[in-house]
Design goal:
Elements (H helix, E strand, L loop, with lengths): L18 H4 L15 E5 L12 E5 L3 E9 L6 H21 L8 E7 H7 L2 H7 L28 E2 L4 E7 L2 H12 L4 E3 L2 E3 L8 E10 L4 H8 L53 E10 L1 H4 L4 H8 L23 H11 L4 H9 L5 E2 L5 E2 L7 E2 L2 E3 L6 E2 L11 E8 L2 H12 L1 H7 L12 E11 L14
Parallel strand pairs: 5-17
Antiparallel strand pairs: 1-2, 3-6, 3-9, 4-6, 4-17, 7-8, 9-15, 10-16, 10-17, 11-12, 13-16, 14-16
Helix pairs in contact: 10-11
The protein binds protoporphyrin IX containing FE.
Length: 467
């Protein structure tokens, strides 16, 4: 292992083609904002009588891959960690010079697991720089904690302990493939047709898994039927995800930096200007979907389990309106359960994913009641469970699923919200049959882990430069 390896000098690619000038996207301060992602308007009436025209939907990048890894760097060796940090910074900078930061190029994200912070950084540094929960019930806990098992998780669910998780997204699959090969294979490689020498960090890590997938209109049905996945023939032709409904409603995704540790008051002690400001908790899980059973339900039964039992949109509407006035908070959710004996997926959690009152953020922006501050960037997969996994078996039998990725202010926030998806108390109090608890009964969770997704400025080995 050569953590102090010399990094070859970088060639000035901007002198050949300056992608930053051609694709005029500023790099954001967070890692989770995605420059260049476009929006389109879907047609659906606003059930709350809002006068907005159409339903805005984010057209997310088509191809996705995550690579998780353990670090091969010795602990207690600050110089080795700083050298590794420098190499990753150089590597990602080179990647972003050759592929613009855009769905047309590549959008990379790097999250860091609890084992990284616990093994490589002194507790005093974490006390100073890792935010803490400010919520009653978890106040004072670091915002990054090990993932927990939820009431409806199967016994064999794996709580993972990776040091690092890379997520790459692009509209072009070969961009993702090339970057993975360049970063994790030894020696020289090719990026965008150009030989590069300074991108490999393969000796610094042992890759523990590779997880791939897609998100795009028509893709789930096309891929699912081509692979013969039972139930795939019933996926609506234009659906962006296996379960049929659009899950990238602009109104259901945190805008700007709303998902960061510090932005929405009350969740953590992080403030603007702190080391981790612009960072967020990132929960990563793999969820298999029982597609055949899901599509054995009638359209109205799927619609109501996905949203609320009050929804009446017709079958052609895959993107029912999600604007702030459609939000369901706790009182209305409980009334729905009482009246219909059923609770929908997004109403299970909106009282935790959206602000219940007009709120002034830490940056002085006033966001109206019903604004979402949780961000989902998940994508569909047919892996069972991953393309590659060092710690367990991988089956060649395709299985419909989701690599779920959710960003928000703390792991504690995620845990509160995810527990609501299982709704144990609500189900018990109202004697709900399993299949009336959102759509959780149609899912099988196989893996989970929480990561810290630092701000872009600290995306490489956070805090190593402070050692
Ligand atoms: C198979 C897995 C899943 C599917 C297909 C799915 C799909 C959806 C859809 C269609 C919506 C409503 C549309 C939208 O807001 O864009 C939604 C909302 C939501 N989902 Fe999921 N979801 C899945 C898993 C999860 C998980 C594991 C969580 C974690 C807690 C989660 C949290 C949320 C939240 C909080 C909302 C409401 C966002 C808001 O309106 O403020 N989902 N999901």
């Amino acid at each position: 292992m050569s953590t102090a390896k010399q990094v070859p000098e970088s060639f000035d690619w901007a002198g050949v083609v300056d992608y930053a000038a051609r694709y005029t996207h500023e790099a954001p301060e967070t890692q989770y904002e995605l420059p260049g992602v476009t929006e389109e308007l879907h047609q659906a009436p606003c059930p709350a009588g809002g006068d907005h025209a159409g339903v805005p939907v984010a057209v997310v990048p088509l191809w996705h891959a995550m690579v998780t890894a353990r670090l091969n760097i010795p602990t207690g060796d600050p110089a080795a960690l700083r050298a590794a940090q420098h190499r990753l910074e150089v590597a990602l900078a080179e990647v972003e010079r050759l592929y613009p930061l855009s769905p047309a190029g590549l959008l990379p994200q790097v999250g860091w697991g609890l084992p990284y912070f616990a093994r490589y950084l002194p507790p005093s540094m974490l006390d100073t720089h890792l935010p803490r929960s400010a919520r009653e019930g978890s106040e004072g806990e670091p915002v990054l904690i090990e993932a927990i098992r939820f009431p409806r998780d199967p016994d064999d669910l794996v709580v993972e302990h990776n040091d690092v998780c890379f997520h790459f997204k692009s509209d072009f699959r070969h961009h993702v493939d090339e970057v993975i090969a360049a970063l994790f294979s030894p020696g020289e490689s090719i990026l965008n047709g150009i030989p590069v020498e300074n991108v490999s960090i393969g000796d610094l890590v042992t890759v523990t898994s590779i997880r791939r997938g897609f998100a795009g209109r028509g893709m789930p049905r096309r891929v699912g039927t081509a692979l013969g996945i039972p139930g795939a023939e019933n996926i609506p032709a234009g659906a962006m995800l296996f379960m049929g409904f659009t899950s990238s409603h602009v109104h259901g995704l945190a805008a700007g930096n709303l998902a960061s540790y510090e932005t929405v008051p009350g969740w953590t002690d992080c403030t603007p200007g702190d080391y981790m400001a612009g960072g967020a908790n990132m929960h990563v899980s793999h969820i298999a979907i029982e597609l055949e059973r899901w599509y054995s339900l009638a359209h109205a039964d799927r619609l109501q389990r996905m949203f609320t039992p009050r929804r009446t949109e017709s079958e052609e509407i895959l993107s029912p309106d999600q604007c702030p006035v459609t939000s369901t908070f706790r009182t209305e959710r409980d009334a729905d359960v009482e009246r219909f004996g059923l609770v929908g997926h997004n109403e299970q959690m909106q009282f935790l994913s959206r602000v219940e009152d007009d709120t002034t953020t830490a940056y002085g922006q006033v966001i109206p009641r019903g604004t979402t501050f949780f961000l989902r960037q998940d994508f569909d997969t047919t892996e069972n469970p991953f393309e590659f996994w060092v710690d367990g078996p991988v089956s060649a039998l395709p299985r419909a699923g989701v690599h779920f990725i959710g960003m928000g202010p703390s792991a504690q926030h995620f845990h509160l919200m995810r527990r609501e998806m299982d709704s144990p108390e609500l189900a018990e109090a109202h004697h709900l049959p399993d299949e009336n608890v959102g759509f959780t009964d149609f899912l099988v969770n196989t893996h989970r882990q929480n990561y810290c997704l630092p701000p872009r400025a600290h995306r490489c080995f956070p805090m190593a430069e402070l050692l």
